[in-house]
Amino acid sequence: MSRFWRVSGSALALVWLLVFVGIPFVAVLVGALASGWCPFWQSITSQEARFALRLTGEITLVTLFINLGLGVPVSFWIAKRSIPGWRVVCWIVELPLSVSPVVAGLALIIVYGPNALLGELLADVHVKVAFAFPGMVLATVFVTFPFIVHEAVTAIRAIGDTQEQAAHVLGASPWRTLWRIWLPQLKWSLLYGLALTIARSFGEFGAVLVVSGSIVMVTETATLFVYQASVNNEMQAAYAASAVLAIVSFVLILVLQLLKRLGRMDLLGH
Amino acid sequence: MRLNRAALFSFVSVALILIFVLPLGAVFEQAFAGGWGAFAQAVTSPIAIRAFELTVNFSILTACLNTAMGLLIAIALERWKSPVSFALDAIIDLPLAIPTAVSGLMLVLLYGPVSPVGKWLSSHGIAIIYTRLGILVALLFVTVPYAVRALQPAIQTLDRRQEEAAWVLGAPTHRVWLTIILPVLRHAVGSAFVLTLTRAMIEFGSVVIVSGSKPMHTEVAAVYIYGLLENYDQHGAAAAAVVLMLLCAVAIGMEARLMMLLGKRRSTAWIRSEGEANHV
């Protein structure tokens, strides 16, 4: 009886996942290569596609640095609970997870758009945010910020502050404590957070679509290229770019799994 | 040193305000710029009401289906170790990493009218792409990992001793599941439900591609907001955005309420401290 439930339950779970996730994933790879390697290669090395992929890479890189630079202090702020305002900060960081990407894009446009308050101020110093690179980075940061903070806060709270106190008593400077005590212990969670950030900023669509205006060869990222191609009914190009993005995300998943394993082993080794 | 720290934290606060607080505040300002009347008018047009209705209905349906299936998948992963569970584990995270626009396109490719699967389905009278069923499929695709990953840790940290005691005392399988395991998991199930619900409500990329966004028929709230933006109606978009955010807030508030109704976190508190001890 129990064996029957076990087998049928597993089978149902597998079918559910295959129908909704697995088979579509395989279908896009098959669809992209349906008419052979040559058209596939041509459509992903077209000027527009190459530009889009490069732009996505650049945005991801800048986002990573911002998220890391801003995320580490914020995670200490939340995790320590000793600096006033940590509850508010925690709340702000959780916010993007329940805001639709379109709304995030809209929010940034309202503040940094051409007719908006800050947008006009920035335009006076010749910085264009909306419909340009900085705006797209802001949108990506908005959507991906929680990931690193989440990972780091859990790790900081789990590690505790005994080692930090020891370092302080022995006269180490805060910087030295950060480099010698915190970062070596936080490295796996930070790397895991970074990999999650890469995955999300690679795939960010809604917020970037609204903020960028999706101008061909100017602000068109890889996901926007996929969308534009599918709207224009250039299915070969859309499928080829989707297949590339799908493979990249699959590799990222493998990296994530590996990081999780390594982090666990590291924890056990201590 | 003290000054340094103060400078660092004020810099961080300014950055957080510029990126998160100010833009979201501006959405509210923009929504009520024309007063309450204009706001009410913008969000009570038939198209808007229909869009919110679709969003809420489909999110609740998705959340119910995926919480149930997520529970089954999580149990299959954690309890019924089988050769299949390795494959399961690899597939689950895919929707988290795949760009939402790409996942929409995947579904169009597989279930669209030109594919063999789509043809077979349409010969049986089922159309998925550009219909409401398509929205449901897209939402199910996107929210699977949230449900599973929310439930997995709770199942991992279950206290096996209670179950074993029940087995030893001769309880039948269904009784062990219904009276021992599920009651302990209820909080995790509650948060998985709310997580899937909010994720489904804010989903945009995959739905915009799969649904074909016909107003009144397959246009959900996020797509509706995008449509308004494309028509340069920033006030209307902001008003609809405020309503969508409020719906999410209600869902999250509901979680707190649900947790209260489900009773004190007696058992889970114990599990959590155990889990943290394991982590360290």
The separation of the N and C termini of chain A measures 44 Å
Largest sheet of chain A: none
**How many β-strands of chain B, per DSSP?**
0
Give me the number of helical elements of chain B: 14
At the fourth level of CATH, the homologous superfamily of the largest domain in chain B is MetI-like
Q: Any overview of this molecule?
A:
Chain B: One of its GO terms (cellular component) is plasma membrane. Chain B: It is a multi-pass membrane protein. Chain B: Belongs to the binding-protein-dependent transport system permease family. Chain B: Part of the ABC transporter complex CysAWTP (TC 3.A.1.6.1) involved in sulfate/thiosulfate import. Probably responsible for the translocation of the substrate across the membrane. Chain B: It comes from Alicyclobacillus sacchari. Chain A: The chain crosses the membrane at residues 58-79, 91-113, 125-149, 190-217, 237-259. The complex is a heterodimer of chains A (270) and B (280). Chain A is an all-alpha fold. Chain A has a single domain (47-269), classed as MetI-like fold (Orthogonal Bundle), CATH 1.10.3720. Helices cover 81% and strands 0% of the residues of chain A. Chain A has 12 helices and no strands. Chain A has helices at residues 2-32, 37-44, 47-80, 86-94, 101-112, 117-124, 133-159, 162-169, 174-203, 206-212, 222-231, 235-269. The longest helix of chain A has 35 residues, at 235-269. Chain A is globular. The model of chain A has no long low-confidence stretch (mean pLDDT 86). By secondary structure, chain B is mainly α. Chain B has 2 domains: 1-31; 35-279, MetI-like fold (Orthogonal Bundle), CATH 1.10.3720. Helices cover 82% and strands 0% of the residues of chain B. Chain B contains 14 helices and no strands. Chain B has helices spanning 2-31, 35-43, 46-78, 83-92, 94-97, 100-111, 116-123, 132-156, 160-168, 173-202, 205-211, 221-230, 234-261, 266-279. In chain B, helix 12 runs antiparallel to helix 13 (234-261). Chain B is globular. The relative contact order of chain B is 0.14. The model of chain B is unreliable at 266-280 (pLDDT under 50). Chains A and B meet through helix 1, helix 3, helix 5, helix 7 and helix 9 of A and helix 1, helix 3, helix 4, helix 5 and helix 6 of B.
